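Please, structure for the following, as C-alpha coordinates.
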Amino acid sequence: MHQPPAWALDSSERLTLDGFLKSFGEAWACTERRFLKLECWQSYREADGVRSQDAFQAGNAALARSLLEEEAMGDQPLRDEVKARNLEFTRVRLLSYPLTAYLHYEMINYEVRSRLGEDIEFFVPPSPVESHFDFLLFDSHTALIHDYGNGPVGHQTGGWLSHHAETLEALAGIVTNLRTHSEQVRPLEGVVEGLETTSGPQDPRPRRDFPQ
Protein backbone atom coordinates (compact mmCIF):
# COMPACT_ATOMS: atom_id res chain seq x y z
CA MET A 1 0.00 0.00 0.00
CA HIS A 2 1.44 3.36 -1.10
CA GLN A 3 4.90 1.81 -1.47
CA PRO A 4 7.42 3.61 -3.72
CA PRO A 5 8.39 1.43 -6.70
CA ALA A 6 11.93 0.26 -7.31
CA TRP A 7 12.57 2.81 -10.06
CA ALA A 8 11.83 5.68 -7.66
CA LEU A 9 14.49 4.41 -5.27
CA ASP A 10 17.13 3.85 -7.94
CA SER A 11 20.39 5.59 -6.98
CA SER A 12 18.76 6.88 -3.79
CA GLU A 13 20.14 7.11 -0.27
CA ARG A 14 18.27 5.48 2.58
CA LEU A 15 17.52 7.92 5.43
CA THR A 16 16.51 7.66 9.05
CA LEU A 17 13.79 10.04 10.23
CA ASP A 18 16.45 12.42 11.58
CA GLY A 19 18.31 12.16 8.27
CA PHE A 20 15.10 12.93 6.41
CA LEU A 21 14.58 16.13 8.40
CA LYS A 22 18.22 17.15 7.96
CA SER A 23 18.04 16.54 4.20
CA PHE A 24 14.82 18.54 4.04
CA GLY A 25 16.53 21.56 5.57
CA GLU A 26 19.47 21.31 3.20
CA ALA A 27 17.26 20.95 0.12
CA TRP A 28 14.94 23.75 1.25
CA ALA A 29 17.84 26.17 1.71
CA CYS A 30 18.89 25.88 -1.94
CA THR A 31 15.41 25.78 -3.49
CA GLU A 32 14.87 28.73 -5.81
CA ARG A 33 11.64 28.11 -7.67
CA ARG A 34 9.36 25.21 -6.73
CA PHE A 35 8.45 22.98 -3.80
CA LEU A 36 5.88 20.23 -4.37
CA LYS A 37 4.46 17.83 -1.82
CA LEU A 38 2.35 14.85 -2.89
CA GLU A 39 0.18 13.42 -0.10
CA CYS A 40 -1.49 10.05 -0.78
CA TRP A 41 -2.19 8.17 2.44
CA GLN A 42 -5.75 8.47 3.71
CA SER A 43 -4.67 8.09 7.35
CA TYR A 44 -1.42 8.95 9.09
CA ARG A 45 -0.18 8.35 12.62
CA GLU A 46 2.33 10.15 14.80
CA ALA A 47 2.66 10.80 18.52
CA ASP A 48 -0.13 11.02 21.06
CA GLY A 49 -1.03 14.29 22.73
CA VAL A 50 -1.91 16.49 19.75
CA ARG A 51 -4.54 18.79 21.28
CA SER A 52 -6.48 19.56 18.11
CA GLN A 53 -6.82 15.86 17.32
CA ASP A 54 -7.91 15.12 20.89
CA ALA A 55 -10.61 17.79 20.63
CA PHE A 56 -11.85 16.43 17.31
CA GLN A 57 -11.98 12.88 18.63
CA ALA A 58 -14.00 14.14 21.57
CA GLY A 59 -16.55 15.57 19.14
CA ASN A 60 -15.61 19.24 19.60
CA ALA A 61 -14.86 20.37 16.04
CA ALA A 62 -15.04 24.05 17.00
CA LEU A 63 -12.25 23.63 19.56
CA ALA A 64 -10.27 21.53 17.09
CA ARG A 65 -10.53 24.36 14.57
CA SER A 66 -9.35 26.91 17.13
CA LEU A 67 -6.34 24.78 18.04
CA LEU A 68 -5.53 24.14 14.38
CA GLU A 69 -5.59 27.88 13.78
CA GLU A 70 -3.03 28.30 16.58
CA GLU A 71 -0.83 25.61 15.03
CA ALA A 72 -1.14 27.16 11.57
CA MET A 73 -0.17 30.59 12.83
CA GLY A 74 3.01 29.03 14.14
CA ASP A 75 3.96 28.42 10.50
CA GLN A 76 3.53 32.07 9.50
CA PRO A 77 7.32 32.58 9.25
CA LEU A 78 7.37 29.81 6.65
CA ARG A 79 4.62 31.47 4.62
CA ASP A 80 6.46 34.78 4.86
CA GLU A 81 9.64 33.11 3.63
CA VAL A 82 7.84 31.49 0.70
CA LYS A 83 6.49 34.89 -0.31
CA ALA A 84 9.81 36.67 0.15
CA ARG A 85 11.63 34.07 -1.92
CA ASN A 86 8.84 34.02 -4.55
CA LEU A 87 8.55 30.23 -4.36
CA GLU A 88 5.85 28.02 -5.81
CA PHE A 89 4.80 26.02 -2.73
CA THR A 90 2.06 23.49 -3.43
CA ARG A 91 0.58 20.50 -1.65
CA VAL A 92 -1.16 18.02 -3.95
CA ARG A 93 -3.61 15.96 -1.90
CA LEU A 94 -5.13 12.73 -3.24
CA LEU A 95 -8.54 11.70 -1.93
CA SER A 96 -10.57 8.51 -1.95
CA TYR A 97 -14.23 8.56 -0.94
CA PRO A 98 -15.70 8.05 1.57
CA LEU A 99 -13.18 10.10 3.52
CA THR A 100 -11.47 8.49 6.48
CA ALA A 101 -11.98 9.84 10.00
CA TYR A 102 -8.46 11.24 9.80
CA LEU A 103 -9.30 13.22 6.67
CA HIS A 104 -12.46 14.65 8.24
CA TYR A 105 -10.10 16.14 10.80
CA GLU A 106 -7.51 17.18 8.22
CA MET A 107 -10.11 18.98 6.13
CA ILE A 108 -10.48 21.51 8.92
CA ASN A 109 -6.70 21.92 8.94
CA TYR A 110 -6.60 22.32 5.16
CA GLU A 111 -9.39 24.90 5.25
CA VAL A 112 -7.58 26.93 7.91
CA ARG A 113 -4.30 26.84 6.01
CA SER A 114 -5.89 27.60 2.64
CA ARG A 115 -7.47 30.68 4.19
CA LEU A 116 -4.01 31.77 5.31
CA GLY A 117 -2.75 31.55 1.74
CA GLU A 118 -1.34 28.03 1.45
CA ASP A 119 -1.82 26.40 -1.96
CA ILE A 120 -3.48 22.98 -1.62
CA GLU A 121 -4.87 21.05 -4.60
CA PHE A 122 -7.24 18.10 -4.19
CA PHE A 123 -7.64 15.27 -6.71
CA VAL A 124 -9.44 11.94 -6.98
CA PRO A 125 -7.08 9.90 -9.17
CA PRO A 126 -8.34 7.54 -11.91
CA SER A 127 -6.23 4.69 -10.48
CA PRO A 128 -6.53 3.38 -6.90
CA VAL A 129 -5.10 5.89 -4.45
CA GLU A 130 -3.11 3.06 -2.86
CA SER A 131 -0.98 2.83 -6.01
CA HIS A 132 0.48 6.28 -5.31
CA PHE A 133 3.15 7.27 -2.76
CA ASP A 134 4.23 10.38 -0.86
CA PHE A 135 7.20 12.47 -1.92
CA LEU A 136 8.65 15.98 -1.90
CA LEU A 137 10.25 17.75 -4.87
CA PHE A 138 12.65 20.68 -4.57
CA ASP A 139 13.13 22.37 -7.95
CA SER A 140 14.85 19.81 -10.18
CA HIS A 141 17.69 19.02 -7.79
CA THR A 142 16.28 16.95 -4.92
CA ALA A 143 13.52 14.49 -4.10
CA LEU A 144 12.65 13.12 -0.69
CA ILE A 145 10.50 9.99 -0.73
CA HIS A 146 8.71 9.04 2.47
CA ASP A 147 8.77 5.64 4.13
CA TYR A 148 5.43 5.29 5.90
CA GLY A 149 5.65 1.54 6.37
CA ASN A 150 3.27 -1.09 5.04
CA GLY A 151 0.01 0.40 6.26
CA PRO A 152 -2.87 0.58 6.63
CA VAL A 153 -1.97 3.75 8.55
CA GLY A 154 1.08 5.77 7.51
CA HIS A 155 3.71 6.12 10.23
CA GLN A 156 6.96 7.64 9.01
CA THR A 157 10.18 5.90 9.99
CA GLY A 158 12.48 7.54 7.45
CA GLY A 159 12.70 7.73 3.70
CA TRP A 160 14.99 8.08 0.71
CA LEU A 161 16.98 10.96 -0.78
CA SER A 162 17.46 11.19 -4.55
CA HIS A 163 19.31 13.56 -6.85
CA HIS A 164 18.91 11.22 -9.82
CA ALA A 165 17.76 13.35 -12.76
CA GLU A 166 15.58 10.67 -14.37
CA THR A 167 13.88 9.93 -11.06
CA LEU A 168 13.15 13.58 -10.40
CA GLU A 169 11.75 14.02 -13.89
CA ALA A 170 9.51 10.98 -13.46
CA LEU A 171 8.24 12.19 -10.08
CA ALA A 172 7.39 15.58 -11.56
CA GLY A 173 5.59 13.71 -14.34
CA ILE A 174 3.43 11.94 -11.78
CA VAL A 175 2.16 15.27 -10.48
CA THR A 176 1.57 16.52 -14.03
CA ASN A 177 -0.41 13.38 -14.90
CA LEU A 178 -2.48 13.66 -11.75
CA ARG A 179 -3.34 17.25 -12.57
CA THR A 180 -4.19 16.32 -16.15
CA HIS A 181 -6.14 13.09 -15.72
CA SER A 182 -7.62 13.20 -12.19
CA GLU A 183 -10.87 14.72 -11.05
CA GLN A 184 -10.10 17.94 -9.23
CA VAL A 185 -12.40 18.44 -6.25
CA ARG A 186 -13.04 21.28 -3.81
CA PRO A 187 -13.92 19.54 -0.54
CA LEU A 188 -13.10 22.56 1.60
CA GLU A 189 -16.30 24.29 0.54
CA GLY A 190 -18.24 22.03 2.90
CA VAL A 191 -15.99 22.38 5.93
CA VAL A 192 -17.77 24.09 8.81
CA GLU A 193 -17.12 24.37 12.51
CA GLY A 194 -19.96 22.02 13.29
CA LEU A 195 -18.50 19.17 11.23
CA GLU A 196 -19.36 16.01 13.08
CA THR A 197 -16.68 13.44 13.77
CA THR A 198 -17.06 9.76 13.09
CA SER A 199 -13.74 9.11 14.80
CA GLY A 200 -13.26 6.86 17.78
CA PRO A 201 -10.59 5.76 20.21
CA GLN A 202 -8.80 3.68 17.57
CA ASP A 203 -8.31 6.57 15.13
CA PRO A 204 -4.77 7.46 14.03
CA ARG A 205 -3.02 10.53 15.34
CA PRO A 206 -1.94 13.23 12.91
CA ARG A 207 1.51 13.86 11.61
CA ARG A 208 3.18 17.16 12.21
CA ASP A 209 1.88 19.19 9.33
CA PHE A 210 5.26 20.10 7.84
CA PRO A 211 7.56 18.86 6.41
CA GLN A 212 6.81 15.14 6.79
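Residues 19-161 form one domain. The longest strand covers residues 88-94.
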